[in-house]
Amino acid sequence: MSSYAKFLKEIISNKRKLEEFEMVKLNEEYSAILQNKLPPKLKDPGSFSIPCTIGEINFDKALCDLGASINLMPFFVFKKFGIKEPTPTIVSLQLADRSIKHPRGVVEDVLVKVDKFILHVDFIVLDMEEDYDMPLILGRHFLATGRVLIDVQQGKLSLIINDEEVIFNVFKAMKHSNDEKEVLMIDCIDDLVDRKFHAFRLDDPIENCITNSFDVNEQILDERHKEVVGYLGEKQRGFVTKREKFVPLDISFSYSKAKPSIEKPSTLELKPLSSHLKYVYLGNPSTLPVIISSYLTGLEEENLIRVLREHKRAIG
């Protein structure tokens, strides 16, 4: 009985021929493979994240990162809280690509609510690209404070405080759609309609009553509108019963139609122009002025004036 490596080497180099019923000794690694004793390969469970709340803002996913020594908050998230500027700090951040970033400051003792627990967290505020999927990064400080235990195989993250435990399931969270912000935009419609209504509503009560159909007993009418609606109602009833005669209008006056500028040029007061512009006249003498560029050559200006004069009736 020989070792498998020596046996295979002699077979390949033709120093030994493969004989029937020959026994080859396998080492522990090969035996484990053939007997299927190795643990199965599992898929990447993805990043571990937890939902949390800061103030009145809910975050569906806050990244739990064991590789980060700080808790990071983007500046666009910080502005949503409407508080003063963060406290300046001399801390500088070295990213994975070796580049250096200087944060805008630090925010201390931020109350972060995770399920039923409320924790004090210090955040570094950094100007960075907006990431609405996972806007917050919770580093080792937060994970140590919350005694976080992560079971990568089961996809579970446990948060333990004062012998109380909350468990988050990463696989279960991945089944829910993350694209919810567009659905929530429906909540803005009523507010937008209300603002537009007040912006474009008619302030004149007479015009408003004529344009819209109102009843004098409607609760939305103020005193001015009720007075106008009542007056219009009385006039309508009087018109139906009495039918006053129409008085013909006197339209005997005469008027002359204004002639176009081509037939009767008007005298205009021309204002001074910038150095790159100048006036030229399509009519004689010095009538029908138009503005052209002063950078045109003599030939270009002459051709332009000729074309404009041919179409001056269309110009007006």
UniProtKB/TrEMBL annotation:
InterPro entries: Peptidase_aspartic_dom_sf. It comes from the Eukaryota. This is Uncharacterized protein LOC104596664. The gene is LOC104596664.
